[in-house]
Specification:
With about 700 residues, the protein is an alpha/beta fold. Helix content is about 45%, strand content about 20%. The strands form 5 sheets. Strands 15-14-16-17-13-18-21 form a 7-stranded mixed beta sheet, sandwiched between helices. Strands 9-8-7-12-11-10 form a 6-stranded antiparallel beta sheet, covered by helices on one side. A 3-stranded mixed beta sheet has the order 1-2-3, with helices on both faces. Strand 5, helix 14 (about 225-235) and strand 6 form a beta-alpha-beta unit. Bound molecules: zinc ion.
Length: about 700
């Protein structure tokens, strides 16, 4: 039992104790120990009145956990509390000291004098960090100067300068101030919770509403023991606040995110729509709504929809998802392959917004139960953008996905070299060699969204000149190119890849781009086109270059025909590119190295190589990544590989032969990007999976 008691003494949160009068504790026979996971832990003796203690303590804390001790043990604890509890006078000075802790920039960088140390129960954050060997004195001095210049507290300045990680900052502040810190997940806050407190108040007092059950409001505060602010929150919201600690750094990011100019505009438009809806008397039928919409295309719903679209263009997103949640609709943008929620659509206007999109793309506005497809274009800042939109009924509501197709690209640019982000000079050389042959089939392969089409367009660009006739068949036309004939598949009207290609072949083309080879019919026409002297470019949905070869044979093509027509395969993926402004150097661990390498010697060598990992800064939206780059596996069809294909070899054999001829596999190419500091082990694993035999 002695051990338990000592443990309890060690876990006593001194700031918590400060909130209680020692006489009161003595009288009611209880000792508050600590706050953890929303619970306040309180040690009591067997005769303590739990109800009284509850009503006294439970003021903002979620719940109480009682720790039952014997009478003697409680006495022992109370005695201990008396030794650590400062007198009333001291209490005041301690409190103000804590308040200014993160802001206090008058820290003496030299080692603290023993006497001072003794008088001050709280250590300055700079001291703690130096003691723990996390920063040097030089770094502290630099951060103090920088912090003064930028008016930023020391801890957050140290983080911004890259001297400590956010985790280290949080842990140090938690240790110093005794408050739980807000984690990143808790900062994904719904708009309606943020709106509990007015913007001015949030900004002026550096406080963020995090969650609420209607009675208790959890708030993140840069100065969590600012009693005045806590009182103001009670007054403003009628809820009892529970303070958690948030670093200045995170607070600033949050503010930038929530109150950005663009977001403010969107909010104003939403407000306007809501006001307008309120003005309309009674229930409006769908048709009345649509009529109103059509009459007033400059109305606020139209403005809101335009905002959703133009924000997406500005942010270079690839898709817009408008999807139902339990209570309302949300808008999410896909950027660099990942989705991010950007706007909540108030439930009162969701129908108008969906209808507006349907009107724009000439869909049937009364149809809610069947999926629909459509397209629309808008002009924005001098460029014309095309959108492909489709709706899908999900659990009684409709989900809308809009793909943004890039604006028209001029193919007649003077620069004719192939430009592929992430491709090495060697890669480009191989591709250039591949396309010098005027007939044959060149394929790019990979999953959806791996940049296959972009690669083919880049190749087309180099091939385009006045002497050749280039025709494309696409589904849909994703990038508009000047100077070439682009046609679109329309299955409903009977225009398939195969039928379209047959008619194109009668028009004497030199180069044909077919969006995708997904059936034997298309493949057959592609092969006969290649055999009659055309260059055919297309994509296949396979995982590697060698698997592409065997896939063609599985589709039904004769192996000798594949062998004689295929000129090359480019398998590819896209990985996120590390942000150059914040990426962090480190040596990979054995576990990490094992994820991407198999050979024990290579693993050992790799562990001694400096590589980079993500960190996050304001330039990359704190994601650690900026943009993407391609990983390429380029297989030139050499004589030897032709022979292997013709005898129906397994794709493993074909790959081995290609590697022997100098092909870099996707794994090797991605490893190359890691070694050059372009991407991370995490991205390797996310995109290619863990390396295996
Ligand atoms: Zn960055």
């Amino acid at each position: 039992m002695k051990n338990v008691l000592n443990k309890l003494k060690e876990s006593i949160n001194k700031d918590l104790i400060l909130k209680f009068d020692t006489d009161l504790l003595e009288q009611m026979k209880f000792v508050p120990i600590n706050i953890k996971d929303n619970f306040i832990y309180i040690a009591i003796n067997p005769f303590a009145n739990k109800e009284d203690i509850t009503s006294l303590v439970k003021n903002g804390y979620a719940d109480i956990r009682f720790i039952q001790l014997s009478e003697d043990e409680i006495e022992d604890l109370l005695e201990y509390v008396n030794t650590i509890h400062p007198s009333k006078d001291e209490e005041k000075s301690v409190t103000t000291d804590i308040i200014d802790e993160e802001n206090n920039i008058k820290i003496v960088p030299s080692p603290p004098k023993a006497a001072e140390d003794f008088e001050q129960p709280k250590k300055k954050i700079g001291e703690i960090l130096i003691e723990e060997g996390l920063i040097t004195e030089e770094q502290l001095i630099q951060a103090l100067a920088e912090g003064r210049r930028m008016d930023t507290p020391l801890g957050s300045t140290l983080h911004k300068l890259g001297f400590i990680t956010l985790k280290q900052l949080r842990e140090t502040l938690q240790q110093q101030q005794g408050y739980e810190t807000v984690n990143a997940d808790q900062l994904k806050i719904q708009d309606k919770v943020v709106n509990i407190l007015p913007e001015d108040f949030i900004k002026a007092n550096k406080v963020i509403p995090i969650s609420t059950d209607g009675r208790n409001l959890v708030v993140g505060m840069v100065k969590p023991n600012d009693k005045k602010v806590l009182k103001d929150i009670v007054y403003l919201t009628g809820q009892s606040p529970r303070a958690m600690l948030i670093t200045h750094f995170e607070f600033q990011n949050f503010i930038n995110l929530v109150y950005s100019h663009s977001k403010k505009e969107t909010k104003e438009i939403i407000q306007q729509i809501e006001d307008e809806v309120l003005e309309i008397d009674g229930e409006e039928t769908l048709w009345e709504q649509v009529e109103r919409e059509l009459q007033d295309s400059t109305g606020s719903v139209a403005k809101f929809v335009n905002k959703i679209i133009t924000d997406a263009i500005e942010n270079k997103v690839s898709d817009i998802h408008i999807e139902p949640r339990l209570e309302n609709y949300v808008v999410r943008y896909r950027k660099d392959g990942l989705l991010k929620q950007v706007i909540d659509i108030p439930s009162r206007v969701e129908q108008s917004v969906l209808t507006r999109f349907k009107v724009l793309s000439r869909m049937n506005i009364a149809e809610h139960r069947r999926p629909q497809d459509g397209t629309f274009s808008i002009k924005y800042k001098g460029s014309s953008y095309d959108f492909r939109i489709n709706t899908l009924p999900v659990s009684g509501k409709e989900k809308v996905v809009i793909r943004i197709l890039a604006p028209a690209v001029s193919l007649n640019a003077a620069d004719r070299s192939i430009k592929l982000i992430g491709a090495t000079e060697e890669d480009i050389e191989k591709i250039t060699k591949m396309i010098t042959c005027p007939n044959g089939i060149i394929l790019t392969s990979g999953p959806t969204g791996s940049g296959k089409t972009t690669t083919l367009y880049s190749v087309l660009k180099t091939l385009n000149n006045e002497e050749v006739n280039i025709t494309t068949i696409e589904d849909p036309v994703e990038i508009k190119l000047e100077g070439i004939n682009q046609s679109q598949v329309n299955v409903k009207a009977g225009i398939t890849f195969a039928s379209c290609m047959r008619s194109i072949l009668r028009q004497d083309p030199d180069i044909i781009l077919v969006g995708e080879i997904r059936d034997y019919e298309t493949l057959e026409v592609a092969i006969s086109a290649a055999l009659t002297g055309h260059l055919v470019l297309s994509t296949v949905h396979t995982n590697s270059a060698s698997a592409t070869v065997t896939r063609l044979i599985e589709m039904g093509a004769k192996d000798y025909l594949v062998s004689s027509t295929l000129s090359g395969v480019i398998a590819q993926r896209l990985v996120r590119r590390l942000c150059d402004d914040c990426k962090e150097e480190y040596y990979p661990s054995y576990e990490e190295a094992k994820k991407i390498l198999l050979d024990e010697n290579e693993i050992q060598k790799f562990m001694k190589t400096k590589i980079y990992r993500k960190k996050g800064c304001s330039n990359c939206d704190f994601k650690g990544y900026q943009g993407r780059l391609g990983v390429y596996e380029i297989m030139q069809i050499s004589k030897e590989i032709k022979k292997l294909i013709a005898v129906g070899a397994h794709d493993i054999e074909i790959e081995e032969a290609a590697v022997a001829c100098g092909m870099k596999t996707l794994n090797q190419a991605c490893l190359g990007h890691i070694l050059k500091g372009f991407t991370t082990i995490d991205e390797f694993v996310r995109v290619l999976g863990i390396a295996s035999e």
